Amino acid sequence: MPIETQGVVALGKGRPVSLETIVVPEPGPGEARVEVQACGVCHTDLHYREGGINDDFPFLLGHEAAGVVESVGPGVTEVAPGDFVILNWRAVCGQCRACRRGRPWYCFNTHNAKQKMTLKDGTPLSPALGIGAFLKHTLVAAGQCTKVNPESPATVAGLLGCGVMAGIGAAVNTGNVGRGDSVAVFGCGGVGNASIAGARLAGASTIIGVDLDDRKLEWAKEFGATHVVNSRDTDPVEAIRSLTGGFGADVVIEAVGLPQVYEQAFYARDLAGTVVLVGVPRPDMQLTLPFLEVFGRGGALKSSWYGDCLPSRDFPVLVDLYLQGRLPLDKFVTETASLGDVEDAFHKMERGEVLRTVITL
C-alpha cells in the first residue's frame, strides 16, 4: 500500500525548499521501494531548485543516497527486501545501441520508476535524476538499486551515487589514468577531490590540484594531491608545466564547468594528452578554441558522463576499497544534518564551506 512521508520539495524556481507530505506508491512491475538511510546534498539538487535543469516543477530533491530495499514489485530479480543498496541514476536498458555494442555505461535509454510519487493533493513530482531521495522512502526502478556490502555506512556509501563516482570515474574510466601518469585537476570541490582520489588510486605519480580557495586546496592534499596551485595568485597553466618538466600533464580534469577554466585545462596538458570535462556547464555557455591548436596538440578531448561508470561493476568495488582503507570516502562527509537543514546546506555549499553535507534519516 502507499506510504506517506515527509520529503524536501522545490515548488518553484529559486524558492527555498520546503518539507511536504509525499505519497510513495507501492512498487509496480520492475520497481522497488527503498528505505533511505542517508542522502548527500549535491550541487545538482541546487541546479534543480534554480531551474538550471528544466522547469518541470515541483521537484522532489535528493539523489545521492543509500538505504535498504523495503519492497519490490512483480518481476524484480536484481534485488530483494533487506538488501543494502546505493541508488544510481543510470539504470541501463540492455537493449539500446550502446548496450548492444558492449558499452552499457553509455546507455542511451536509462529508465526510472514508471509510477509517480505525488504531493498529498495528487500533484505529480519530478524526482531529481529520476530518484528523489530526501525522504524516508522512495520509489525507483529496480535497476537503480545497486547491492553493495552492508558493512559500509550509508553516509559514505551513498556518495558513490553521484558526485564521488563522477569524480573517480572521470580519472579512472574516462581519463584512463595509469601508473606514473601526471594529472591536474581544476576545481577541488567534491567532484574534483574525488578525481584526485581516483588518480591516486590509479597510481598517478604527480597529482596537481588547482582552485581559487586555499581551504579546498588543503582538502585536495588530504585526498592525494602532491602539489596545489591557487589560480587566483598564479597562472595555473605555467604552474602545471613547471611541475611536469615543462610539458604539461598527461591527463587534465576540468571539474568546474566554465569555458575559461576548460581553456586553461586545454593548454595545461602535454602533447597527445587527455582533457576530461566532468564539470557541468550551463546551457548558455560557449567555448572557442583555435582549431589548429585542437589539431596540433593531438590527444583527446573527452566528456565524462557520471564518470562513465557502470554501477553494477563500479559501486561494489569502490565500497570494498573503502572497507579496505584504500579509498577515504569518509573524508568527503563534512557534516551530517536532517531533512529540515537542506536549504541551509545549499548555502554552505555555495559558500564553499563543505565538501558534502549528508542528510541522515
From TrEMBL:
One of its GO terms (molecular function) is zinc ion binding. One of its GO terms (biological process) is formaldehyde catabolic process. Keywords: Metal-binding, NAD, Oxidoreductase, Zinc. The keyword Metal-binding applies. InterPro entries: ADH-like_C, ADH-like_N, ADH_Zn_CS, ER, GroES-like_sf, MycoS_dep_FDH, NAD(P)-bd_dom_sf. It comes from the Bacteria. GO terms for cellular component: cytosol. Residues 14-359 form the Enoyl reductase (ER) domain. Its cofactor is Zn(2+). SUPFAM superfamilies: GroES-like (SSF50129), NAD(P)-binding Rossmann-fold domains (SSF51735). Belongs to the zinc-containing alcohol dehydrogenase family. PANTHER family: ALCOHOL DEHYDROGENASE (PTHR43880), ALCOHOL DEHYDROGENASE CLASS-3 (PTHR43880:SF12). This is Oxidoreductase. It comes from Dactylosporangium matsuzakiense.
